[in-house]
Design goal:
With 239 residues, this protein is of the alpha/beta class. It has a single domain, classed as Glycerol-3-phosphate (1)-acyltransferase. The chain contains eight helices and nine strands. Strands 1-9-6-2-5-3-4 form a seven-stranded mixed beta sheet, sandwiched between helices. Strands 7-8 form a two-stranded antiparallel sheet. β3, α3 and β4 form a beta-alpha-beta unit. It is globular and about 55 Å long.
Length: 239
């Protein structure tokens, strides 16, 4: 399997002052970084929000405190926008698909992913307590295939960064299911986010090892259930 090119560390260091301002704006904080393994692959999953500012800020904290440069998986459309594509690629992000996730994990990277993606962005709103990953099994299958533990993480404040309209929601979800893209109808301070406080919690790693006697489907369902339970526990604890 062909390796994925590395991130551009000089570029990341160059843009970090901008993210310092974003960090201050949201009063971002994170706990649980001690759960992140310093070596070997790991898959860190998080809730999405409308725009996942917390993902960028978490990556910044991981670089500063652990010395790891995490890799991210982003929506396909981002890599078709001139300028945006180059920004993400130089920052170490790649298109979110099973093949890229597997390649990164097999290279031993810490990989960041919001499994809910655009679907979750359509649902995100202040006070949302649901983790809409019921049918999102792909990340579990990839973790099993590579032996990478799954790190659940949750940031409730990201759902407060914008007001989101549910107008024509069913129709927009159907569009997303057909073309894999749909645009949330949202506003904050215009298109700028509201200064919601972002506190991000990283939970303990969840092992993906098989239990004696279970088949692959049973293994996937069990681990997915463990991830959902860990996420829901953080939802209830942090709201």
């Amino acid at each position: 399997m062909k390796p994925i090119p590395s991130h551009d560390q000089k570029f990341i260091d160059k843009v970090s002052p901008f993210f310092f301002l974003v960090e201050k704006y949201f009063r971002y904080s994170v706990t649980g970084l001690n759960h992140i393994p310093k070596t070997g692959p790991a898959l860190l999953v998080m809730n999405h929000g409308i725009l996942p500012f917390h993902g960028f800020l978490l990556a910044k904290k991981i670089i500063e405190r652990i010395g790891l440069y995490p890799r991210s998986l982003g929506a396909d459309f981002l890599f078709h926008l001139p300028g945006v594509r180059e920004f993400f690629l130089q920052g170490g992000a790649v298109k979110a698909n099973p093949k890229n996730a597997e390649r990164l994990l097999k290279q031993g990277h810490l990989v960041l992913l919001a499994p809910g993606g655009i679907y979750e962005a359509l649902l995100a709103k202040p006070g949302l307590k649901r983790i809409p990953w019921e049918r999102r099994l792909g990340f579990v299958k990839t973790a099993i295939k590579t032996g990478a533990p799954i790190l659940p993480s949750y940031c409730p404040g990201i759902n407060n960064a914008y007001f989101n309209s549910y107008l024509f929601l069913r129709q927009r979800i159907k569009i997303m299911e057909k073309v894999r893209f749909s645009l949330p109808i949202f506003f904050g301070l215009g298109l700028l986010p509201l200064p919601a406080r972002l506190h991000h919690r990283v939970g303990k790693p969840i092992s993906v090892k098989k239990i004696r006697g279970e088949n692959l489907d049973q293994q996937v369902q069990r681990i997915h259930g463990e991830v959902m339970a860990a996420m829901q526990h953080m939802v209830l604890r942090m709201h």
